[in-house]
Structures are given as C-alpha cells and as structure tokens.
Amino acid sequence: MMETLYHSLKDNIRTLVNLKNWGEEKMEVVNLDHPIDLTVSLNSEPCVMALGFFDGVHKGHRKIIETAKEIAKKEKIKFTVMTFFPHPSNVISKTKKIDHYITPLPVKKEIFKCLGVEKLFIVNFNTDFSEFSHQQFVEQYIVGLKCQHVVAGFDFTYGYKGQGNMDQMVSDSNGRFDVTTVSKLEHNHEKISSSAIREMLITGEVQKIPMYLEDYYSIKGKVIRNYHINHNENVLTIKIDHSYHLPKKGLYKITAELDNSIFDGTFYVPLHNTGTIEVHLLNSHINYDEGNITMYFIEQEFGNSQIEEYENMFIVI
Ligand SMILES: Cc1cc2nc3c(=O)[nH]c(=O)nc-3n(C[C@H](O)[C@H](O)[C@H](O)COP(=O)(O)O)c2cc1C
Ligand SMILES: Nc1ncnc2c1ncn2[C@@H]1O[C@H](COP(=O)(O)OP(=O)(O)OP(=O)(O)O)[C@@H](O)[C@H]1O
After folding, report:
1. Half-sphere CA count of 210, side-chain side, radius 13 A
2. Phi, psi of 4, deg, nearest 5
3. Which residue of 49, 57, 59, 61 sits with most ligand 2 atoms within 8 Å of its CB, as the best mutation to test the pocket?
4. Which of 92, 193, 230, 260 has the smallest number of Cβ neighbours within 10 A?
5. Domain Riboflavin kinase, which positions (predicted)?
6. Per-residue confidence at 306, pLDDT binned at 50, 70, 90?
7. What pLDDT is recorded for position 303?
8. CA angle at residue 19 from 73 to 122, to 5 degrees?
9. Do 155 and 68 form a contact (C-beta atoms < 8 A)?
C-alpha cells in the first residue's frame, strides 16, 4: 500500500516539476507596514481577498485560495491574498512562539504565484498591528484596499485578541463587501491544519503529511558543494532557509529534484536548522556544484534505537 502511494506520489512530483516550469505567472507583492500607507490604498483595484497566515498552504488553505480564484474570475476583479509575517505568536506573549515554518515566506510566495494569485499583501504583524480592533482592520485593510469580496475559513479570526470571526466580518462589512466562509476540510474526522502538520514533523511521521499537504513535505535549497563518495553516491551540501521547520532528528528517505531530474537519497536531519545541510543522493553521477534543489521527505528510515548507532558510524568516518 505504502509502495503504491510512494510511486503515485513520485509521479505527482514529476507533474509538479512540469507545472513549476510553466508557472511563470506574475504576482505583485505589497509589503504593508502598520499604519498603512495611504498611497497603497489609493493605488488599489477592486479585488477578492483570501485571508490567513497559510503556513504550509495545505489542502484546507488551497480550498480557500481556489474559492477566491473562482470568485475573482466570475466577478472579473483582482485575485489577492493577504497574509501576515511573522506568525502572530511572535508578538502575542501568552502563546508558544512559532518561528520555524512549514513554508518559510519566500517559499509561500512561490506557491501563491503558482496558484495564480495576482497580488499578495504581506502585513508586518507587529505589536501595534495586533492591537488594532476588528473594525479598524476592516476599515483600513479591507475596505481601504478596495476589497469587494473576502474569503476565509470557518475559524478565521482577526483584530485585537482575535475578537473578530467570520460572523463579525459580515457585520463589520456593513454591506460594503461580500463574505464567503469556507467550511472545514477534514482528514479522518480531524481538521487539516498547520498545527497537525507541525506535530507530524515533531514526531518524524513525515509519511502522513501528503494526506494534509497534497504533496510530500519538502525543503528547497541551493547546492553549494558536491562530492562523490563512490561511483554510485553523491553528497551535496545545501544552503536552506534558517526558518524551515525540520522534521525530528534522524535519517529519512528522500526524493530530490535537481535540474528537472529526480534522485532517491537519504538525509540525516540534525537537531537544529543551522541553514546548511548534507544529503546523500544515489545513482547521481553528475556533478552538481550549484543549482536549486527540492528535497521531498518520504519516510523515516531508522527507528529511534538505531539513530545513535548511525551517529557513531559517522564519528568513526
Ligand atoms: C488586526 C489584527 C489584530 C490581531 N490581534 C490579535 C491579538 O491581539 N491576539 C491574538 O491572539 N491574535 C491576534 N490576531 C491574529 C488573528 O487572531 C489570526 O491569528 C490571524 O488573523 C491569522 O488568521 P489565521 O490564524 O486564521 O490564519 C490579530 C489579527 C489581526 C488581523
Ligand atoms: N481545514 C481547513 N478547512 C477550511 N479552512 C481552513 C482549514 N484550515 C485553515 N483554514 C483557513 O485557512 C486560513 C488560514 O488559516 P491558518 O493559517 O490559521 O491555518 P491553520 O491550519 O488553522 O493553522 P494553525 O493550525 O496554525 O492554527 C484561515 O482563513 C482558516 O480559517
């Protein structure tokens, strides 16, 4: 069963590689600092806006983005997304800080672009912004940006202490824009969520992630060094974004996409993300000293008891 899933998903990766080649769509990115610059409002065009943090851009998020896209097409208005950075937990003292992401901001931008988003608003989530009331947010960031239609999920909250919800949004709109609330998307009776995916990364259960993400968990990076261990195995040193949420420490079976070619390999995930990693690729005879790489996590290779043994092996080498 797992093998079948693996092969079909591997085919998906091939499809995604092709899609990426076509995905040369244009997307305007507007960084918004609080208080909002009035010229941004003046230059805005009528739009539909999907709202949320969207870490991972998982299946539930995609349902929202697809809904907004369809509305934009039907109503012939601009298709926009508004997201926030950093994660609100970084400025709200009572919550656990989320500063490592399933999709760091540059990756999230790339995904939005591939999904056809025409304009992306990134609001700098700072303390002043977090203290803005739900009414003020709607006046300045929704009505002010000429949004004619808001799309968000059933549990979207906004405004000081997260006091606004989707019912409040209808009331705050005061008839000036439409509101579409997307219902809960579930897997095995559980909400598909970024938190659930983070939990799978923490436990190392990466094989479950495709059910939530529609793809394997992946990390993108730039190759900076390459050496051959033998005629059949390459070790690549790769620079990655410091804010990636790495899976639990241990050895993982990966599939890597490099220069439109697919390789199988392994990646020993360290305890912390230092911004540089090493992956082993099999059957890759070519020299790759540079270039972009995407690593897809298939499954954890060893049980926990074997990790220490594996580490000792490295020390000996
Ligand atoms: C103007 C504004 C103020 C916010 N203030 C707070 C806050 O005081 N406390 C809080 O926990 N979240 C606050 N949030 C965060 C929201 O509750 C929510 O996490 C954010 O809008 C992203 O939505 P999502 O998590 O559903 O994607 C605020 C959001 C906005 C837009
Ligand atoms: N499973 C889901 N079904 C429908 N809408 C969803 C789902 N998950 C998230 N959303 C919506 O997507 C937008 C972004 O939500 P958010 O970034 O909080 O995702 P999340 O997966 O709930 O994250 P977290 O687990 O960190 O709370 C919001 O409008 C939210 O209501």
Report:
1. 16
2. -60, -45
3. 61
4. 230
5. 214-299
6. low
7. 53
8. 60
9. no
The pLDDT value given to residue 188: 96
Number of C-beta neighbours around residue 42 at 10 A: 9
Nearest residue to 45 (alpha-carbon basis) of 68, 79, 83, 84: 79
Contact 82, 47 (CB under 8 A): no
57 alpha-carbon distance from chain centroid: 5
Q: CA nearest 307: which of 191, 162, 204?
A: 204
Question: What domains does the chain contain, in order, with CATH numbers?
Answer: 25-187 (3.40.50.620), 216-311 (2.40.30.30)
Q: Report how far residue 211's alpha carbon sits from residue 190's, in angstroms, rounded to the nearest whole number.
A: 12
CA distances from 301 to 20, 176, 250 (A): 29, 54, 8
* Residue found under tokens 């220490």: 308
Q: How many angstroms separate the CA atoms of 102 and 105, rounded?
A: 10
Q: What is the pLDDT of residues 50-66, one digit of tens each?
A: 999 999 999 999 999 99
Average pLDDT, the chain: 90
Ligand lying nearest the CA atom of residue 81:
2
What ligand 2 atom has the least distance to the C-alpha of 196? 25
Least confident of 9-18, 167-176, 195-204, 265-274: 9-18
Q: What is the pLDDT of residue 317?
A: 42
Most confident of 86-95, 203-212, 231-240: 203-212
ipTM reported for the complex surpasses 0.90? yes
- 137, 186, 191: residue to mutate for ligand 2 pocket, most atoms within 8 A of CB: 191
